[in-house]
Amino acid sequence: MPKNQEGRRGSYAKGIAKREEILTRALEVIAREGYRGASVKELAAAVGLSQAGLLHYFDSKEELFTEILRKRDEIDMAAFGGVEAVSTDVEAVRDGYLQVIRHNSQVPGVVELFSRLSVEAADPRHPAHRFFLDRNRALRGVFADVVRQSQSAGRLTDAIDPDTLARILQAVADGLQVQWMLEPDVDMAAIVEALFRGLSTTEGDSDE
């Protein structure tokens, strides 16, 4: 391989590694300092860069924040063993979802970033627009598949079709995050668990 090609590949690999470091450290800063304390200046300082140096790796502050949320999802998924670990069992999916919600209650800055960016991303021109569309569709797809199989097995009510129920589950979780930011004593996980319990047709399953 020509030396100049090796150099380009090496430089590219270093750039990818630095970008990942920035996202990981930025996520830590937001979790620790909160959304308001996570200015570009603060995030740049955390990785030893100037603001201009930080934005060399991202097109804008909005893209940086979008990629931070993508990194958060990547970390959450890894905690469950990857995509292949997503279960079709409603209790397993419920428990995993509740685990993520409980974790979110420990990182209010990340929740605020998610909620604020999701509203701004309603603008099709926003860098996070595609991220939220794809993320929401994927999440609802997982829920709908689980609901469909659980309804067929008689474990969940069939009074609501799977796609609608999947959207309801997502809407409840997203809406609860906003309520929780206003009222920190709201127990998001307990409310979502109660919803699953209300949808179950098998007595005692929600307490397993």
From TrEMBL:
Record keywords, A-Z: DNA-binding, Repressor, Transcription, Transcription regulation
Gene3D superfamilies linked: Tetracycline Repressor, domain 2
InterPro entries: BetI_C (IPR039538), Homeodomain-like_sf (IPR009057), HTH_TetR (IPR001647), Tet_transcr_reg_TetR-rel_C_sf (IPR036271)
DNA-binding region: 39-58
HTH tetR-type domain: residues covered: 16-76
One Pfam family linked to the record: TetR_N
The protein's name in its UniProt record: TetR family transcriptional regulator
SUPFAM superfamilies referenced in this protein's UniProt entry, alphabetically: Homeodomain-like, Tetracyclin repressor-like, C-terminal domain
GO MF term (any one): DNA binding
